[in-house]
Each structure stands twice: as structure tokens, then as C-alpha cells.
Design brief:
The complex is a heterodimer of chains A (357) and B (466). Chain A contains 20 helices and no strands. Chain A is an all-alpha fold and 357 residues long.
Chain lengths: 357, 466
């Protein structure tokens, strides 16, 4: 077979494949159009009935009958509604979720081989409100795929499983600020129910720095006053991220008695810690720390200087007066610059040149 | 076997390897897009959008004499769904009414804002803050090209992620949410690239996309096909192979710390985005940073950019792109076939050099050779036609593959009319437009070797976006 014959054969095959591809694309387009229409129509029919059910106007059996016409979309709709209702209203949807009897199927998917299936099953099980899913979700906290572990953690918190706090922290103490934020945010779903377990972790010496950082952050989010003593202990921890989260959380809790211990970190070796100390002093309205904040205006890191200035503003008249004074008389040029910048941003000082407008 | 036969076989082998790589990229792209979408969980983007813990972003918009469109671009950027971000617009020595227009539209007032200057730039003349939008800052500086403007904005930025877009870009409202997601899932992500599609044909009012559509002209449609091919499977496939060497300057999200470590954009570059992506890859490998693993492509983060619909502007733009590609490759030539750079050095860089930068020259050689073969009687007219048809139908097949990948996403054509226009554009793409593009690239290649380094003519804007 010579070159031209090969080329001709290839061209004919490719022409056939291109026509076939075009037919597939047209078919896909028709299918997608119909699918979108169907979804739109289903929502138009189901949403008013669902709203009626939640308002007590529509009986459960009628609502279930309409939703059952498209179980997949019905579950999506119920999950969306569940999110918009929040924890308080979620219980109302439980009978509707239960009518689909999908928990067993989802649990079996959660134990399957495909990580995508495990991921979606872990997410859905959090909405169904069925406690029989708890053991499987706890097992999923040991999944090889981090995303599945995150999804299982969220679902456990949605199901108000307080026993899961410690396993969640242990299974998701992956390094990195963002991951720790995500875990803290998930545990925050539990609200005050998480306090006891968080306190235990903060008091214990057996946890690594990632776990301690997460626990400290959650304590701050929950404004757990009982966590103040262990958080103060963490201010001397050797890992900067732990100190950083302890400072932030103490500022969130708002106990004025912690001001001196927070201020003692103003010379910390980590600029992130120094920056959070400056921000914390503003949040805690630590007027006695004005000299320290003025000192922070000349820190070598921009964020520390900025937070020191912003905190002075938060202190009210005294702080603003000190900042105005710093514009002219601060010993450091950076300190003068950032003071002017902060005052201008808050509209407390005119621009150095006229506005273009 | 004489020299012509050897040359024929070399070109044929080149063509077969190129098309095989393309087909491979289609397959990888398709599986990656499917994998990506299957990994998105229920309400994931809404949660990112509502979370106060999402990483804040500094959006940087460099502009030079963009008074026609800049207000629309900024209004679009200010409407994005994202919990915390700032918009920094840099007027890079604009001589038109850009700065005055911005002052008027957004009630700007001059402030003293300073930042850490890790990267030296041309002089900053003034920083302005909007009285209406606290997260909008305008920087006026001495002209120093787009890269210099970006570097100046980075010095003034406050947030750990930088989103760099062009002055003519309109972002999908959820684009930032989609681009930030990889950073939240994996701390090792260095940068995220998104999909870029033509904005010509969209209906945009006050920075808001009201309806989608396709460009009106044939040249515009031709570029629509080209963008679909490039972004629907090529980039995502190359990203999977750790060989994505061009993150479009129209949409990039990167860690600020890494941007500064790399040394920022290079003002001497003709296409600073390609040069920066290559240098970023080099830096990641040179430093062997375990926490910076690579570049990710987000196939659902979409940005629309204005494409030229006049042949002269198109030629000027593509000529610059070709020269810029050559410049970026030669500046980073140490990576080519260098095992130190892993897949990027062994696959990405050689692919970029042989099948992107030099493709036009090889293809032109093939055309010349065909004529020679015909004249010398080595091949008959029908044999030449068969070869041309093979090249044509392969192009059609690859373009149709990109349509197949697009049709199941929200980037699908809005109407049947647009769909058939797109199919028609695919069918006629290789009947003149491709050859025209080829000539521009060949001229660009030669001009690069002759030392041409200017940026060409700036594009006339269509003020549909303001």
C-alpha cells in the first residue's frame, strides 16, 4: 500500500468519523436542550408545592408524589432548600428526604471504589438527616482522598455528631493555612456543641500544631470564653501558626484581661503574629496600648504597620489623635506614610494633592 | 531516494506526530474535563462565595489608552461574586482620557498608598481611591509596557492571590470562585488559568453580560473556533502533562508570594504572559519547591476578551504573538530537552518550539514542496488534492471535538443558528483563513530573527462594553 492510498483511506475514515461526530454533537445538543427544559419545568411544578409543604399548606403525600416524578432533581431541590432554611428549618425536610429511601444506596456508594462517587455520597448523606449514616461517615474520615474526608466531616457536623470533633481534627490536620481554615469552618457548623471537645484538645499536649491551630481557630469562631486559659497558654507555643491562631481567637472572644499577654507578642519573630497582635489590640479596644501601636507603625512589614494604624482608628478619639500626631511627628518615615494613608482611607485627612474629580 | 523525497517524508512525519499529539490532547482534555466536573460537590462554589475565610484576591487590570472600554471592564470586575477582593487599575502612561474618565466615573480621590516594592518599576505618578467603591484603586504611572504596569500594581496590592486580566476582559460573574477553588483544595497550587473566549457578539451592558452570542464577521468566527480548540482541550491536556507554557494574560490567578519570587513580569517581553509562564515553570523546577506543585487549568472559569475583526489588526496581533513566542522560547531555551525540568523540559518546551513556534515555517515548506512536486512531476494533481483533503478533514475533526466538549458545558452556543454558524466556520476555517494566519506567523518568525521587538499597532476598541 503506497503513501497516497494510506492518505486516501485515512481521509475517508476521518470524513466518516467527522460526520459521526457531528451527528453525536447534534444529538447531545438536542438531549441537553430537552434536559434543561425538563429541569426548568420540574422546578416550576415542584418548588411551589415544596414551599407550600414548608408553610404547612401542602400535605406531605402530595409533595412526595410530585417530587417522586424525578427523584434525582427532587433531591437536588431538597438539598438547595435545606441550605436556604438553615439548621432550624432543616428538620422539616426530613420526612421528604426519608421518602426517597436512598440512604442505603448512598452508604454503599460511600464504600465504593470510585472517589467521585464516594465524594458525592459523603456530601448527600449530610442532608438526609439519617443517623444510620454516621458510622460510614466516620469511616470515610480515613479515606485516602482528602476531598472525601472534608465532605464526610461536613456531613457529620450537619448531622450534629459531636463525637466526630476529635476524629475530624485528627483526620484533617493537613498542613497549610487554608486547609485549617476549612476545617475550622466545618466544625463551626456544630456551634456551641463543639465547645467541650475543642477545650479538651486545647488542654491536651498530645496534639500536633495543625490540630491545635484548628482547635484555637474554632474556639475563636465560637467565642468560647472557657477556652481563654488554654488559648493564653498557646501564646508561648513554639509554632508561629499556633500563636497566630491563639491571638486571633482571643481577640474574637474579647476578654480584656488577655490584653497584656497578647501585647507581649508585639515583638514576635513572625510578622504574621505581630500583624495579628496589632489587629487584636484594636478589636479589644486596648487604649493603654497606644504606645505599642505607634511603635508598630514603624514595623518592617507593611501589614503590621497597616494593622497598627487601623487599630488606632478603632480606639476612637484617642487613637485618631495619636495617629494624626504620627503623620507629622513619627520618628520613622514609614510610620508617617502609613498613618497618612490610613487617615486618608477613612476620610479623616485630605489628600496631599487635589482630587481629580 | 532524492532530497525532495526525504524532505517529503520529514514533513509527513512531522505532520503525523503533530496530529497524533493533538488527538492525544483531545482525549486527555475530555477525560480531564469530565474528571473536573465530577469532582465538584453540591453548593461548593456557593460556599466559597459565602465563606469569610476564602482567600482574598487583588484583581489587576493594566491599561494603556483604553478610554473606550475601561469603565465597562471595571464595572464588570466590581460585580464579581467573591467575598473579598480589590480592583487595581493601572494606567500605564495613557495619553488619552483614561484617568480623567475613571476619576469622573468612580469619583476617585488621590491618596498616599505605599507598598513593598519587590520589583522595580517605572515611576508611579499617583494613586487614586474611589469614594464610591472602597475596593477600587487606580494607579497612574509612567509608560513601561503591560508587564511593568502589572509589577507596579503588585507592589500596591494587599491580598495573597493576584488575578491578572486584560483591560478588554469581561469576566463571568463566578469566574473568581471557580479559579480560587483549586487553591482551597490544594495548598500546592501555584497558579490557575481559565478559559478565554471572544467577547465579540456578547450583549454587555454596564459591565454585565446580558446574553451570549458569536462574532458577526467570518474572521471573528474563525477565531472563535481557534479559541475553542485552544482552551477546550489543548490547555487542559497540556496542563495534565505539566506542559502548559502559556497561561493567557487575559485570565491568571497566582499566589502573590510566588509572583514576587519569580521576579514579576518582564517588561521587555512582547508577549509577557507566555514569557512569564515559562519562567514560572522554570522557577518551580529550579527551586524544587514541594509546596508549589504546578499550574492548574480551570475549565469553567471564563473570561471574554475582545478579538480583532479587521484583517490589519488581526495580522498585527498575531505577528506580535509569533515574535513573542519565539522570544519567550529563546529566553528560556535552557529548559528544552533538559531532564531537570521534568515533563515541562522534555515534552512541553520541545512541543512548544517544534509544533507551535516553528509550525508555520514547516507548513509553508510543505506548501512550497507540493508546488515543486507538482512542477517536477513527482506528484500528480489528484495526489496533492488527496493530501490537502486529509489535512483539511483532520482540522475539521479536531475542531468538531472541541465543539463536542463545549456542548455539554455552559459555554455551549446559545441558539441553533449560532451552532450552525460555528459548524460553518469550522468547515471553511482551512479554506483560506488558516493559510492567511500561517503567512502572518511566517513573517513574524522572520521579523523576530531580523530583530523586530516592538509591540505593533494597538487595537481599535469597540465600545460595546461601557
Amino acid at each position: 500500500m503506497n503513501l497516497i492510498t494510506i492518505a486516501l483511506t485515512s481521509a475517508i475514515v476521518l470524513t466518516f468519523l467527522s460526520v459521526l461526530l457531528l451527528i453525536v454533537i447534534i444529538g447531545l445538543r438536542i438531549f441537553t436542550d430537552r434536559n434543561l427544559d425538563h429541569e426548568s419545568n420540574f422546578r416550576k411544578r415542584a418548588l411551589p408545592v415544596l414551599k407550600g409543604f414548608l408553610a404547612g399548606d401542602a400535605p406531605a403525600d402530595v409533595t412526595v408524589a410530585i417530587l417522586a416524578k424525578d427523584p434525582y432533581r427532587a433531591l437536588q431541590l431538597l438539598m438547595e432548600e435545606s441550605d436556604s432554611l438553615g439548621e432550624g428549618g432543616r428538620d422539616k425536610l426530613r420526612p421528604l428526604f426519608a421518602s426517597f429511601s436512598v440512604v442505603k444506596k448512598e452508604i454503599s456508594l460511600l464504600k465504593g471504589n470510585l472517589w467521585q462517587n464516594r465524594l458525592h455520597a459523603a456530601v448527600r448523606l449530610g442532608y438526609f438527616g439519617d443517623d444510620s449514616a454516621l458510622p460510614s461517615l466516620m469511616t470515610a474520615l480515613r479515606d485516602d482522598v482528602v476531598a472525601v474526608r472534608f465532605a464526610a466531616a461536613r456531613s457529620l457536623c450537619q448531622l450534629a455528631c459531636t463525637e466526630a470533633v476529635e476524629p475530624i481534627i485528627r483526620s484533617l490536620d493537613v498542613p497549610g493555612e487554608v486547609s485549617q481554615r476549612r476545617v475550622a469552618e466545618i466544625l463551626f457548623i456544630l456551634g456551641a456543641r463543639a465547645n467541650e471537645a475543642i477545650l479538651e484538645i486545647l488542654k491536651s499536649a498530645s496534639y500536633n500544631d495543625a490540630s491545635l491551630s484548628i482547635a484555637a481557630r474554632v474556639a475563636g469562631l465560637l467565642r468560647a470564653e472557657l477556652a481563654v486559659p488554654p488559648l493564653q497558654n498557646l501564646l508561648t507555643h513554639q509554632v508561629p501558626n499556633v500563636r497566630l491562631n491563639a491571638v486571633r481567637s482571643l481577640a474574637s472572644i474579647g476578654d480584656h484581661a488577655t490584653i497584656p499577654s497578647i501585647a507581649s507578642l508585639s515583638g514576635d519573630s513572625s510578622w504574621e503574629v505581630r500583624s495579628s497582635v496589632m489587629a487584636a489590640l484594636g478589636r479589644l479596644h486596648a487604649t493603654a496600648q497606644i504606645p505599642l501601636l505607634l511603635q508598630g507603625l514603624s514595623d518592617q512589614e507593611w501589614w503590621v504597620r497597616h494593622n497598627a494604624g487601623a487599630s488606632l482608628i478603632q480606639l476612637g478619639d484617642q487613637g485618631i489623635k495619636a495617629l494624626r500626631n504620627a503623620v507629622e511627628h513619627h520618628v520613622d518615615a514609614y510610620g508617617r506614610d502609613v498613618s497618612r494613608q490610613i487617615l486618608q482611607q477613612r476620610g479623616l485627612l485630605p489628600a496631599t494633592t487635589e482630587s481629580r474629580s | 531516494m532524492n532530497a525532495i523525497h526525504i524532505l517529503l517524508w520529514v514533513i509527513l512525519a512531522y505532520y503525523i506526530v503533530l496530529q497524533t499529539i493533538y488527538l492525544l490532547l483531545v482525549l486527555i482534555g475530555a477525560t480531564q474535563v469530565r474528571r473536573y466536573h465530577r469532582g465538584i460537590t453540591f453548593a461548593e462554589f456557593r460556599r466559597i462565595g459565602e465563606s469569610p475565610l476564602s482567600m482574598p484576591v487583588s484583581i489587576i487590570i493594566p491599561c494603556y489608552n483604553e478610554a473606550e472600554i475601561i469603565v465597562g471592564t471595571i464595572r464588570n470586575a466590581l460585580r464579581l461574586n467573591y467575598p473579598q477582593y480589590e480592583v487595581i487599575v493601572v494606567s500605564d502612561g495613557s495619553t488619552d482620557a483614561t484617568v480623567g474618565l475613571l476619576s469622573e466615573s468612580f469619583k476617585m480621590r488621590k491618596i498616599d498608598r505605599f507598598g513593598r516594592r519587590h520589583i522595580p518599576t517605572k515611576e508611579v505618578l499617583g494613586v487614586y481611591e474611589s469614594q464610591e467603591y472602597p475596593n477600587l484603586v487606580v494607579v497612574e504611572k509612567v509608560n513601561g509596557r503591560r508587564a511593568d504596569a502589572i509589577n507596579a500594581a503588585v507592589s500596591l496590592s494587599r491580598y495573597p492571590l493576584l488575578c491578572i486580566i486584560d483591560a478588554d476582559c469581561v469576566l463571568d460573574a463566578d469566574a473568581l470562585l471557580h479559579m480560587a477553588r483549586p487553591f482551597l483544595r490544594d495548598t500546592g497550587v501555584a497558579a490557575v488559568a481559565g478559559v478565554v473566549r471572544p467577547s465579540n457578539g456578547l450583549s454587555i451592558v454596564d459591565g454585565q453580560i446580558l446574553s451570549s452570542g458569536l462574532p458577526k464577521t467570518l474572521l471573528g468566527m474563525n477565531q472563535e473556533v481557534e479559541y475553542a480548540r485552544s482552551f477546550q482541550w489543548a490547555r487542559i491536556g497540556l496542563s495534565r502533562l505539566k506542559s502548559m507554557l502559556c497561561i493567557s494574560g487575559a485570565l491568571l490567578l497566582i499566589k502573590k508570594s510566588l509572583f514576587e519570587e519569580v521576579g514579576g513580569s518582564w517588561p521587555g517581553a512582547m508577549t509577557d504572559d507566555i514569557e512569564f509562564t515559562m519562567r514560572l515553570n522554570r522557577h518551580i523546577h529550579d527551586r524544587r519547591r514541594k509546596d508549589h506543585q504546578g499550574l492548574i487549568f480551570a475549565p469553567d472559569a471564563v473570561c471574554f476578551t475582545e478579538i480583532p475583526e479587521k484583517f490589519r489588526q488581526y495580522a498585527s496581533q498575531r505577528n506580535r504573538w509569533q515574535r513573542g513566542t519565539m522570544q519567550a522560547i529563546f529566553r528560556n531555551r535552557g529548559m528544552i530537552f533538559n531532564p531537570r525540568y521534568g515533563m515541562t523540559g522534555l515534552l512541553g518546551m520541545p512541543f512548544f518550539l517544534i509544533f507551535e513556534a516553528m509550525a508555520a515555517v514547516v507548513e509553508l515548506s510543505a506548501w512550497i514542496l507540493m508546488v515543486v512536486c507538482l512542477v517536477l512531476g513527482i506528484a500528480t494533481g489528484s495526489e496533492i488534492l488527496i493530501m490537502l483533503f486529509l489535512a483539511y478533514i483532520l482540522g475539521v475533526f479536531l475542531s468538531l471535538s472541541s465543539v463536542l466538549l463545549t456542548e455539554s458545558t455552559r459555554l455551549r452556543t446559545a441558539s441553533w443558528r449560532d451552532f450552525w454558524r460555528l459548524i460553518l466556520a469550522i468547515l471553511i476555517d482551512n479554506l483560506g483563513f488558516h493559510q492567511f494566519h500561517l503567512l502572518i506567523r511566517v513573517v513574524g518568525t522572520f521579523q523576530y530573527f531580523l530583530g523586530r521587538r516592538d509591540l505593533g499597532k494597538t487595537m481599535e476598541r469597540m465600545p460595546l462594553q461601557s
